[in-house]
Amino acid sequence: MRAAVIEGGKFVVRDIADPEPAHDELLIRVHGCGVCGSDLKTYPLLPDGTIMGHEFAGEVVAAGSTVAEHWPEGTAVASMPVIGCGTCRHCIAGDPARCPEPQALGLGVRAGGFAEYVTVAASGTVTLDPSLDIRSGALVEPLAVGLHAMNRGGARAGDRLLVVGAGPVGLSVVIRARARGITDITICDPVNQRRQAGLDLGATNALDPTTDNIGTGFDLVIECVGKAGMVAACLDAVSPSGRIVIAGVCMEPDTFMPLGGVVKDVTMSFVSYYTVDEFGFAAAALADGSLDIGGFVSGYATLDDLQDVVDGLSHPSDQHKIIITPG
User: Fold this and answer.
1) Residues forming a β-bridge with 270
2) pLDDT tens for each residue of 156-193
């Protein structure tokens, strides 16, 4: 198969052996794999030979012996990019990302979806509605991220919500917030095109942090940037007894004054991934029309374009979600 392999800190397309599923796994032909902001931050740090890509969807082409009966060839699916042991309390509760021995796909442990084929756990796979373009199934993963952040923040109709960062994760939070009935949504981002995307997807107000006063009194603040200084900014913006969710992947030390959170009696959560139920819920919502995702996908590209896509997304731009089509 063809795959985009990291060599010397860059993506290079190579022909490698096709993977084979274990007894409880599926072999998926990848139709679409989204480029994530965390990919941009981590790919230069990963070892040669890594196949990245954790937002993918495709069709079943083979299944292991213990799951083949339930997964016929040709089934359109999206899969969670993390595999747990299956027996610990977290896996039993449907949260394999919290397993003591998780196997992450696309981060140097197991191969991800920037390839023609990928092996996945059947237990973390959901079917896609036949009416969907299979490539759009790659959106299940980022939409599940937004859903998990909303759930951990206890988001509810009537909240005054601030979303810090209008990249794909921030936009997925906006989409989920509108679906939940929240009508006061402020998006904050220094890039004008991203602010406009937030408004187009349902935000009611957009602010430029370099020129605008963000203000305070937000019931829920969800941080989707992952840069130093963001926790302190969230503490400034949140209301007394408010909630903060940190979803951004910050790769450097950060400092903030705990007293601010103590005085305000704030609840703060740090989140990643999602549960099996949340992943399935995101897939169902994508199919039933309850989510307005028009404009969320900026475009499609091939494996051969991946390095150029990554280079372009590493700088402020008007691009949102780019989906790689390996086939």
Assistant:
1) 246
2) 999 999 999 999 999 999 999 999 999 999 999 999 99
- Over residues 311-323, the mean pLDDT reads 82
pLDDT confidence of residue 30: 98
Cα–Cα distance measured from residue 123 to residue 138, given in angstroms and rounded to the nearest whole number = 18
Q: Reduced to 3 states, what is the DSSP secondary structure of residue 213?
A: coil
Q: Which two tokens stand for residue 188?
A: 């904050």
- 7's tokens: 């060599």
**In the structure, what pLDDT confidence band is assigned to residue 87 with cuts at 50, 70 and 90?**
very high
Compute the radius of gyration of the chain from its Cα atoms.
19
CA distance 145 to 173: 8
pTM flag (> 0.85): yes
Q: Give the confidence band of 327 by pLDDT, cuts at 50, 70, 90.
A: confident
> 78 pairs with which residues across the strands?
57, 126
Which CATH code, of 3.40.50.150, 3.40.50.720, 3.30.9.10, 3.40.250.10, is assigned to 146-270? 3.40.50.720
Find out whether 215 and 234 touch, Cβ atoms under 8 Å: no
pLDDT in tens, 44-79: 889 999 999 999 999 999 999 999 999 999 999 999
Query: CA 199 to CA 166: how far, in whole Å?
Result: 10
**Rounded to whole angstroms, how far apart are CA atoms 54 and 220?**
28
Helix, strand, coil shares of the chain as percentages rounded to 5?
30, 30, 40
Residues contacting 284, CB < 8 A, separation 6+: none
Residue among 2, 18, 24, 3 nearest 120 (CA): 24
Length of the chain: 327
Which DSSP symbol is given to 260?
H
Q: Residue 290 has what DSSP assignment?
A: -
* 2-127+296-324 topology per CATH: Quinone Oxidoreductase; Chain A, domain 1 (3.90.180)
Cα–Cα distance between 156 and 317 in angstroms, integer?
A: 31
